[in-house]
């Protein structure tokens, strides 16, 4: 009976982290993701049609969909030979390219890249020789024949009609394994254009979360521009900022495509999550929107992981999942005070140490201009940030007209520590959707629970940094 129950248990539509896998690559929602995907596909089609070189660069924080978009694009380009290099697995680009080419060849059913090229060359040869007897003999005798001419000369002879392959002298392709060996980065750069020019070979090289150790090889690729190659590189912002080679960075900026991905807006996140739930009637758009709002979901990886766990625990019941995602225990006033202290003593101190802000108050600060104490006060060089912390059980949060942050937003300026700030940025730290036109930092139940338990979730600091950069 237990075995029967397990067998009949519906599949979980939401992947656990990490989500960027072949299994889920076809799932793609959100206008930003779709627009980047379409731009990349159009660039690839130009490479396919013209045999030119093309390059694209994606920059964005973790969890914004860079890897997922890359994998989706590779599935949309079956005519391209995909070479996927994950920087977390390979310390240098040469090793990543060689091993990925072997892996792709085996996934396509070949023993390795030489075997794959041999087969492609056979197809090319058959295209230029309509002799059916020869075609039959080639297929049967392939393993026993040796081709003695250089690879490029051989292909050129076929194209120009001077066939070294004839019914009487079937010097076939086995020695291509000797001629076409890609065992180094130099081999890759030199052989890909030959394959492209002579056989219509097109390659998609994805260098994901690019490492500093890859810069030398990337510069060679950008300078040589191998025909038939479309290179797509991704960076996290910190790594992008670390690139010191100005010439290389200029090359990246001038690539065929340069796109920056940020965390999806609520409506985009809803579309992304909906793309995973096709065939599951209980997950309507309204239900997914409610998950996003009540759960304070912003990061796609975090959202999918939470929904994955909630689905398993609740067997797909939407009401149960909603309660699990949006709820946390504790007195809301006490929780608000705990969050205030955490933000002041840990997050503000960290931001000042990293030079994101130049000043912060270690406790609630009285602002004489409004004759009230504001929970969070900190400043950059020219902007003063005034924040309230409000954790609530309400479905959404409406800020009363007499609230400190709204009153402060009407002021022309505030003097603090001998400096007059004309730019004021009021905001609210909360767990709910804000109905007023006030900037909100929405904490998820998981983040709140971690803070209550004395932990420091890095996602909270990232949210404040994003507000500082907006």
Describe, in plain words, how this protein is organized in 3D.
47% of the residues lie in helices and 15% in strands. The protein is built from 20 helices and 16 strands. α2 (31-50) crosses α3, α14 (285-295) packs parallel to α16 and α15 crosses α16. The longest helix is centred in the last third of the chain and has 22 residues, at 332-353. The two termini are 56 Å apart. It has 470 residues and is an alpha/beta fold.
**C-alpha end-to-end distance:** 56 Å
Mean pLDDT: 80
Largest sheet: 5 strands, parallel
CATH homology superfamily of the largest domain: P-loop containing nucleotide triphosphate hydrolases
CATH architecture of the largest domain: 3-Layer(aba) Sandwich
What is CATH's topology name of the largest domain? Rossmann fold
Question: Could you name the ranges where pLDDT drops below 50 across 5 or more consecutive residues?
Answer: 1-9, 134-150, 162-178
What percent of the residues sit in helical stretches (DSSP H or I)?
Answer: 40-55%
Radius of gyration: 29 Å
Query: Which of globular, elongated, flat, extended, rod-shaped describes the shape?
Result: globular
The CATH class of the largest domain is identified as Alpha Beta
Strand content: 15-25%
Overall tally of structural domains: 4
Order of the strands making up the biggest sheet: 2-3-4-1-5
Beta-strand segment tally: 16
| Annotation field: number of helices | 20
Structural class: alpha/beta
